Amino acid sequence: MFRKNIPSLLRHLLKDMPKNQPVIAGNGSVIFDDNNKQLRYESIDMKTIFKIIDMLRKDYANVYYQFFDQDIVCAEKFESTIQHYYEMNLTLPREYRLELHIISDAKKYLEKNNSIVTKIEICNDDLNLIQEIKDRLEKIPNIEVVGSGLNGIEITKKGLNKGNSLEILAKHYGYSIDECIAVGNDENDIEMIKKVGLGIAVKNAKDYVKEVADYITRNDNNNDAIAEVVKKFIKPAI
């Protein structure tokens, strides 16, 4: 069964908002409206997941990977992103902590638990190796593959991205996608930036993101880029 709630970490980020907010997560695989109604919850099929695991085990045994099984993060190694999540959990109230599982065999775990995997992440500091893995994954027909950060890859079900998920959410509220503004900085934001009426890249976005944007902020995403967008484009329209 799918969990019908917004993931715990997102609830923590949203808790100080003045009202409930809609959520798009997992590169578009998960959508909730402001009443916690689930509009989309799409997972990668298990056959494809096993194919990815087999490839990584055979040819890239030292490369870290993890799975998002609904609100649980699973990995075979305690390092990289899951270690970061563990350290972050120590600073959070219990109700907002991510559930983390270190498992001995990903295939056995996923099969035994009838897991619903919305996203897979792969990380390694060898950027040439990451590009090689990405190139191979892009040949698998049932998945979307995008770069994430400096050294990561994110995998979701084929056809999912933030752009078409934002279109679903906009339609749910009675808006056209042309009336929407989207702000991003990385490869997984490109489809969203291209699809909306006003696509914005922050100052520190990747160059290929800036190339598809209608506007590039003067500030980066750690220094009030969103405030700049609100002041320049949203307040004048209110």
From TrEMBL:
Pfam family, one: Hydrolase_3
Gene Ontology molecular function terms on file: magnesium ion binding; phosphatase activity
Xref: Gene3D superfamilies: 3.30.1240.10, HAD superfamily/HAD-like
Assigned GO CC terms: cytosol
Signal peptide: none
Entries under InterPro entries matching the protein: HAD-like_sf, HAD-SF_hydro_IIB, HAD_sf
The organism's place on the tree of life at top rank: Bacteria
Membrane-spanning segments: none
PANTHER family: HAD SUPERFAMILY HYDROLASE-LIKE, TYPE 3, PHOSPHOSERINE PHOSPHATASE
Name used for this protein in its record: Haloacid dehalogenase
Source organism of the structure: Clostridium polyendosporum
Native organism taxonomy: Bacteria, Bacillati, Bacillota, Clostridia, Eubacteriales
